[in-house]
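user: Kindly work through both lines:
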Amino acid sequence: MIGFMSSRSPEDSVDVVAAFRRGLGDRGLIEGQNVVIEFRWARGEYARLPALAAELVSRPVGVLVAAGPPAAYAAKAATSTIPIVFGSTDPVKSGLVASLNQPGGNATGVHLLTTDVEAKRLGLLHELFPAAALFGVLLNPKYPAVAQAAQELAEAARTLGRPIVFQDASTDPELDAAFATLARQRAVAVLVAGDPFFDTRRNQIVALAAQQNLPAIYHFREYAVAGGLMSYGVSLSEAYRGIGDYAARILTGAKPADLPVMQSVKFELVINLKTAKTLGFEFPPTFSARADEVIE
């Protein structure tokens, strides 16, 4: 039995769960035939994760999959014996593993380079809006990696010579207020930082950006597919397929300590031309030519 706990919600995780099942299938494990998967979802409410982890540990499961940094930390705190396969940022710095090549202990997984490329996203915004007087950044103060992301973005803004303003949001009303404030402050464009809570509110965030006529860059392609202007980040499908592969390996005898942490190395630049037209914006041809996917 696999326990699958996520910081996100099932509605916004359909594609990644499908990729996870493909990873299992590559190793001959098919849900409902020779493996059972118990799903638990925090729906962006990180305080629920310790209880969800404890529930799955008590089942007990043969391997505990932890999707997203908050879920990974909760899983690590819940058990030192049940194998854990995570998808997380900074697994060494956060203490999930001893090193990427030799994880040690009971956990391994995929290093998701999400907050690690916030500066790159800001650079893409600057490339598109080089004369912007102000960029906005949306952050969730309850996200474990928020301090690192804020620091990297502040440093990147200084390097670019562009002012940025941070807006915090960890509830639905705060999201509404944040976008209204950014519009009042006349931010030219917005960077939505990587965060599972934001993922659970993807459609709401994209709608708020459209309502305020704010171009925005996001961390996963799902946002661009949902109507966001553009996204730059790791391929979640590739990462979750790897998580499924590792979960299958462990269930068939491998030990987490012997499986090096994989790094998500496939990045995707996705642009939405329909949204650009609605915003009265046109991507430069050279920028469009670099896109991995163009939504028309």
Remarks:
- The radius of gyration is 19 Å.
